[in-house]
Amino acid sequence: MNSSSKVFPGTLRDAATRGHKIAMITAYDAPSARLADRAGVDAILVGDSAAMTVLGLDSTVGVTMDEMMMLARAVSRGARRPLLVADLPFGAYQVSNRSAVANAIRFVREASVDAVKVEGAGTTIRRAAAIVAAGVPVMGHVGLTPQTATMLGGYHPQGRTANSAARLLEDAQALEAAGCFAVVLEAVPAEVAARVTDAVSIPTIGIGSGASCDGQVLVWHDVLGLTTGHLPRFVKQYARLADQIVAGIEAYVADVRASTFPADTHTYRMFNGELPAFQNALNEPSDT
């Protein structure tokens, strides 16, 4: 994949066909998107995981379309080359084809994203087809679908029985038939993900689904060690930034309290000769 050319949905498919593994990461603001772009990722997901990582909510369900729009606009200002995909949040596409299309178009028109992502199968397949028919590329998502985790019995791997694995494969094929250009496989047994990848002609993007997928996606805060508390089994931390950030802020607090910051190098001065005039205006005695 050309490291300088803009990535489009078709670019991912061509790359997967050539055996090029696709690297995708989430981002939620312009600086993060800019850094991800510099690092060479192929795609950025403005994930509804922002509900937890950025907004402090307990699940993805509470994030709104307006909040996702704000984040997507910020990310689009920071990233230029990667494919930019935005999660349609819970409630933005489940009600009707009309609302699904309207919200997808809003993402493209107002936030300059390249594509949207929807979760699940069932009625979601009809929503995906309607959005694609309206001219907006769609990425599907099967396996563990956080927006409907309560219906799945919690945040648990999916496809661990023969029947559920068969349904998962059928769902991925149905999303491909609906026009999706790629599908995320989340928390799916590696052997099942491998068979889904073989069964569809669109790229599969894994998260906790083994190395046979055409690509991988992880959450920004997980990759960089910004997440606190429990981490999913599939997360690999490539940095420990939380510790570095705390150490940096602790050092700042200590300097402020010790009056060692700001030093002269961090301070502005008046132009030569202006201090006496200022003191005179205040009826203060001159220092000279």
Give an account of the 3D structure.
By secondary structure, the protein is an alpha/beta fold. It folds into two domains: 9-240, TIM Barrel (Alpha-Beta Barrel), CATH 3.20.20; 244-281, no CATH class. The chain has helices at residues 9-17, 30-39, 50-53, 65-78, 97-111, 123-133, 162-177, 190-199, 220-223, 241-257, 274-281, and strands at 22-26, 43-46, 83-87, 115-117, 138-143, 182-186, 204-207, 215-218. It has an eight-stranded parallel β-barrel with strand order 1-2-3-4-5-6-7-8, surrounded by seven helices. Strand 5, helix 7 (162-177) and strand 6 form a beta-alpha-beta unit. The longest helix is centred in the C-terminal third of the chain and has 17 residues, at 241-257. It is elongated, with a radius of gyration of 24 Å.
The biggest sheet amounts to: 8 strands, parallel, barrel
Low-confidence stretches: none
Overall geometry comes to: elongated
Strand order of the largest sheet: 1-2-3-4-5-6-7-8
CATH 2nd-level architecture of the largest domain: Alpha-Beta Barrel
Number of domains: 2
Please, how many helices? 11
Instruction: Give the CATH topology of the largest domain.
Output: TIM Barrel
Please give the number of β-strands: 8
Class of the largest domain in CATH? Alpha Beta
CATH superfamily of the largest domain: Phosphoenolpyruvate-binding domains
**SSE string, helices as H and strands as E:** HEHEHHEHEHEHEHEEHHH
Helix content: 40-55%
Strand content: 5-15%
- The pLDDT mean sits at 95
Distance between the termini: 68 Å
SSE class:
alpha/beta
**Radius of gyration from CA coordinates:** 24 Å
